[in-house]
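Hey,

The postdoc asked me to send both predictions to you directly instead of through the lab channel. I've kept everything plain text so nothing gets mangled by the mail client. Protein one:
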Amino acid sequence: MTNFPRELGDEMESYVEANESPGNVRPASNKLFRNDVANALRWASIALIGVFIASVISVILPIQLLRPEWQDKLISSIRGGASFPLEGVLFMMLASVLSPDDQGITKQLRRVRKFAVAMSLIFLVMAPLQLYTGLKVIGGRTTNEFESLAVLKRGASAIDRSVSEAEFRAALGSIPGAPPLPATTLTEPIPTLKANVLQQISPQIKRLETLIEEQRRKRTEQFIGFSIRDVFICLLYALAFGAMAKRSLS
C-alpha cells in the first residue's frame, strides 16, 4: 500500500508551519506594515514642514520689510531651518513609494512637490539677496559708530570754542556721559577747565577711532567668509529642493 497521501499531508503541514514562523511575513501583513510606515512618514513630513513654517513666522514678527536687519533675520531663519522641510519632502516621497495606492498620500505629495519648487526658488533668490542685506547691516552698524564718534568730536570742538561759562556748560552737556558741573558759579577759570576736559576727551576720541576701524575690518573679514559659506549653502539647498520637485516640473 502506498504512503503518498500521508507524505503529501506531512509536506503541506511543514509548508504551513514554515510560513507561519516569525521569520516569514505574509504578503497581506507586509502590505499593512508598509501602509503603517507610509502613514507615519506622511505625518512626520507634515510635522517637519509645519515646524519650519512656525519657527520662521515666530522669528520674523513683527514684520518690517524695509529694514535690512529684519531681512537678514528672515534669511538666516530660513537658511538655518531648511533641513526640516527638506526632510519633510523626502519623507513624503518615501511614503508614496511604500504606499503608491494611497490617494491621500499621492495628493499630499503633489502639494509637497509644489512647496519644494517654491523653496528652490526662494534659495536661488536668497543667494544674492543675503549679500545685499549683509552689506546694509554692516554699513548701518559702522554708521552708528561713526555718529557716536562725531557727537564726541563736536562736543570737544564746542568746548574748545567756548569763552563763557554758559557756553562751556552747554558744550560739556552735549557730550554723552560727561560728568555734570556744579550748579554754583565755577571757581576755576574757563581756559583751565577747558584744558582739563579736553585732556580727558582727546585720548577717548583716539581710542574710539581705533576701535571703530578695527571693528569695521573684523566685520568685513567675517562677512566675506560667512557670505561665501552661506551662498554655497543656499545653492545646495536650491539644487536639493529642485531635484525633489523635478517630477512636478516635467
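Protein two:
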Amino acid sequence: MAGNITLTIIKPEAVAHAYTGDILRIISAAGFTIAALKLTRMSHAQAAGFYKVHLEKPFYRELVEFMASGPIVAAILQKENAVEEYRKLIGLTDPAKAPAGTIRQLFGETIRRNAVHGSDSDVNALKEAGYFFQVWERFDRDGNFLEPEEQVG
C-alpha cells in the first residue's frame, strides 16, 4: 500500500524569491495536509548527510553547497499516495521540461535550482521526514498527533 506522507523542501532560491506562500497555497489546493512545517537552514554537514545518497554523483558537491546557502522550508505533507501525488504536482526535475502549472515549471530556474525537493519513494519519505521532524511535531488535519500507521498507509 502506498504511503500517506512525503517530504518537501522549498529550496533556498525559492525562499529568497518569496515563493514560499505561493508554493504552500498550491500544495494545499491540491488536497495535501501540511502535517509539519519549519523554516530552517541546513549546515553544510546536515545538507551533506541529507543528500549522501548522491555522494558519488558529479552534482553532489554543488547540491550540498546550494542547499546550505540559505534558509529552506521543510514540510511533511499528508495525502493518500502522497509521494506519487506530490511528484505529479511538482513536475520534472528540469523546470524547462516540467508540465505547465507544476511547481517547478512555475517557480524553478534550473535543474538544480528547481524550487522544491520531493521524496522519491515511500521509504525515503519516512527517512527524510525523520531528518527534519520529531514524531511529536507531526499533526493531522484535526491537530491530533500523526500516528505512525497514518504515515505509512
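Summary for protein two, as requested: The CA atoms of residues 55 and 61 lie 8 Å apart.

Thanks,
C.
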